[in-house]
Amino acid sequence: MKNKVTAALIASAMLGCLGTGVYAGSNLQEIKAYLNPGIKFKVDGQPVQLTNSSGAVITPIVYDNNTYLPVRSISNLLGVTVNFDGKSNTVELGEQTEGVSIAKGFDSSYHTKDPKVTIYNGKDYKDVFFDNGSGTRGSSFMLYPEGKYQKLYIQIAAIGEDLKEFTIQDSDTDTVLKKQDVRVEDGLVTIEADISGVKALYVHGDAKSGGSVFIPLTTSYYK
Fold it and tell me: Which parts of the sequence belong to the Copper amine oxidase-like N-terminal domain (predicted)?
């Protein structure tokens, strides 16, 4: 979809409600507004129905000749992540300013902090996914962004043998978000994938006999 972020930013300027249940604060002002169920919506020329996180239909609110809708409903249609920072009382659209490491909650039998295998090219990454299994095999793990992020950046290196078809996939829909080979000669590379709205990811690749897969978790992150 063209100009997703731009469209979402324009839309957000017109919208008055997050739909997140956040109402605390002293800046709220009571107003008199009207529901207008007659307004219809299209995205890229196709009719759409706006719903909230529970699946209930959203009815536009009209106030002072402007139409207001929850930011989250619009962002979901446009494929742009939205978050609310309660500390700064700020709506965040698209990529977050600070990356969030995938290390938190990471679960895999190849997850290790053993200093014997966390070092790559002289740098100790402390916390890594290091698959040094035997034979030709699938090397895989799950991630759970829970729809909170716009992008995923994974750093990865193939050691000994190239890694074929390293794939980042939406686990719920089986949609492939990114696929590429990782060559030993490339060293540590960063692979980017658009994960807007994705709750669970299946990350996998085809490892050859004699090859290892090295992914530093501390420098791989959501954003």
Answer: 58-101
Tokens of 97: 């300013």
Q: Of 53, 77, 93, which marks where a domain is finished? A: 93
- Partners of 22 in beta bridges: none
In CATH, what number is assigned to the domain containing residue 112?
A: 2.60.120.1060
Q: How confident is the model at residue 48 (pLDDT cuts 50, 70, 90)?
A: confident
Using CB atoms within 10 A of its CB, is residue 29 exposed (0-12), middle (13-18) or buried (19+)? exposed
Mean pLDDT across the chain: 83
Q: Residue 24 has what DSSP assignment?
A: -
Clarify whether residues 60 and 121 are in a common domain. Answer: no
Task: Return the pLDDT at 78.
Answer: 63
Q: Of the candidates 21, 19, 10, which has an alpha carbon nearest to the alpha carbon of residue 51?
A: 19
Give tens-digit pLDDT for 120-155. Answer: 999 999 999 999 999 999 999 999 999 888 899 999
